[in-house]
Amino acid sequence: MSRPVEATGLVKRFGDLTAVDGVDLHVDEGEIFAFLGPNGAGKSTTVRMLVTLLQPTAGSARVAGFDVVREAGAVRRAIGVALQDAAIDPMMTGNELLQLQAVLHGLPRSVVRRRGPELLERVGLTAAADRRVGTYSGGMRRRLDLALSLIHEPSVLFLDEPTTGLDPTSRQSLWEEVRRLNDDGTTVFLTTQYLEEADQLAGRLAIIDDGAIVREGAPATLKEAVGSPTLRVDVPAGQREVAHQVLLRFGPNRPCREGRVAVGLDGGAAQMAEVVRALDEASVRVDHLELDAPSLDDVFAEATGRRLEGATE
After folding, report:
1. pLDDT digit of tens for each residue in the chain (313 aa)?
2. Does residue 105 sit in helix, strand or coil?
């Protein structure tokens, strides 16, 4: 039996620009798979090929068992899609949009009468069902878009940066709904630039940068591979180079934001006292010091030499 999502050597070019450059990936049945990367890395372009909105320049992909080029219609009937830039008519109500979506999928009215209220309740929009969508908040629109993508009970759900621009409470609410859908057996392909989102939801992920996958695996495994925790130190501008040279005695350089010095501390927390003494002996004034366990941002930094957008750094 084929996997819900399989791609081999997927390439997309726009003139001289290669947006996706030979992507190989797969998603297993019942998995939440996160596709993580900064803006412009090729995440959305890859998703648009997988959901048949763009044709690959080269390579192949199968979704829900169907070829995305030769069997595009069958792919569309089998999947649910909630894109970041989905167009929702602000003059229609939530109920009306669900009914329209059902018609587009060729569903009988009996199904709409049952599924519509179920989905609205599921995403917490029952009280707003007859309000025009133009009056909805950003979080409400995202939840409605999720309901619309589920009307035909898809086996694979694609969520393209579903929480971008949402406040923390709305983000948590959407995460809980994604988990519930997955618990019910839906395979989820999630693209995101938020490290916490991928870490919280995904059993496995791939990190894409400049159109190519640079790391793939379970979040815990990828973080363990980074090794040592990251020591971050803030010092006065005139002392950064001295501080950097001192810290390099304790571990390799790590990318960090401007104005900060960071290394992988090979000895971990046990070496902190020694580090502080060395900085003091070099007459370096420490304004702030922190030691953090390896994160997905460290995984990205180790692979690319820079930090991810959306990271705390």
Report:
1. 579 999 999 999 999 999 999 999 999 999 999 999 888 889 999 999 999 999 999 999 999 999 999 999 999 999 999 887 666 788 999 999 999 989 888 888 888 888 888 899 888 899 999 999 999 988 888 889 888 999 998 999 999 888 877 888 888 888 988 998 899 899 999 998 888 889 899 999 999 999 999 999 999 899 888 878 889 999 998 999 999 999 999 998 888 878 899 998 988 888 999 999 999 999 999 999 999 888 888 888 888 877 765 444 4
2. coil
- CA torsion 187-193-197-200 (nearest 10°) is 80
Residues 6+ apart with CB under 8 A from 269: 229, 291
Q: With CA atoms as reference, report the closest residue to 243 among 276, 292, 291.
A: 276
pTM here is: 0.79
Q: Say what angle helices 94-104 and 138-150 make with each other, to 10 degrees.
A: 30
C-alpha dihedral sign at 70, 72, 77, 79: positive
CB contact at 8 A, 59 and 8: yes
Whose structure tokens read 């829900």?
Answer: 64
